[in-house]
Amino acid sequence: WGVPNSSSGMSLSTLLHSRFSSFVEDELDNSLDFSIGQTLPGMVDVSNVYADAPKHIDHPHGTTTLGFVFKGGVVIAVDSRSTMGPYIASQTVKKVIEINEYLLGTMAGGAADCQYWERVLGMRCRLYELRNKERISVAAASKLLVNMINAYRGYGLSMGTMVAGWDKTGPNLFYVDNDGTRLKGNMFSAGSGSTYAYGVLDSGYRYDLPEAEAFDLARRAIYHAAHRDAYSGGIASVYHIKEDGWVKISADDVTDLHYHYLETEKGGVQPSGI
């Protein structure tokens, strides 16, 4: 490195420190010359070890849930069948989560994910009431939910939920899923039977529906979805959210509904091919 010249004005310790630092940096650059994403020498890349492994527990989910806003509030309707692929695990699952007296949430996707996070949402909504001395709005509740599950996006959550309720702005309905989607609308349906439910809703929905017709439309949509979708079935439950809170309207077995509609609409004549 040479001997420092006293006339340069730099002390020996300062010069030695500067040259030693330069030497260390050069050595590090030479020894760690690899790009981001490469493994260090002697290490094994395990990032794709399970990429081609069979997913033995990747079961398709099935359900039908729906909700729509009308002049009398919000109607929520769900089935009660829980499936794991072709296996029917239960016919009596409660797919409406009662967040509080004015808020309801629905379940579509993974039952455990929906139940857990919507119960956490209920806790967060109660804390909001205690801190702010007023009920949380439907928009704020749905925002809390999407913020919580968005933090786990890509971790395997399976959720397609609706958050419905009545607040100072009136009846509101939001859709939230595990991808971080949050949508406000007047009508949503989620689950494997949603395409059949949408067909019934699109043909019969209007904002000025009387309460009895709104309840029948929701019940009929769940029935038709359960009739055509093998992953939906069980009990068709209908809820009504009003200004003074929610109330459960009915819970009917879809088999009983089938024969009821068969008698009232088709004169008891079974259509061919069904």
Tags for this model:
five-stranded antiparallel sheet, elongated, 12 strands, 274 residues, 6 helices, alpha+beta, 35% helix
Short note summarizing the structure:
The protein has 274 residues and is α+β, with helices and mostly antiparallel strands. The protein contains 6 helices and 12 strands. A hairpin with a 4-residue loop joins β8 and β9 (182-184).
Folded structure, characterized:
The protein is α+β, with helices and mostly antiparallel strands and 274 residues long. 35% of the residues lie in helices and 25% in strands. The protein has helices at 12-31, 111-132, 138-150, 194-204, 211-228, 254-266, and strands at 65-70, 73-78, 82-84, 87-90, 96-100, 103-106, 160-167, 170-177, 182-184, 187-190, 235-242, 245-253. The strands form three sheets. The chain has a five-stranded antiparallel beta sheet. The protein has a five-stranded antiparallel beta sheet with strand order 5-6-7-8-9, covered by helices on one side. A two-stranded antiparallel ribbon has the order 3-4. Helix 4 (194-204) runs antiparallel to helix 5 (211-228). The N and C termini lie far apart (93 Å). The model is unreliable at 31-37 (pLDDT under 50).
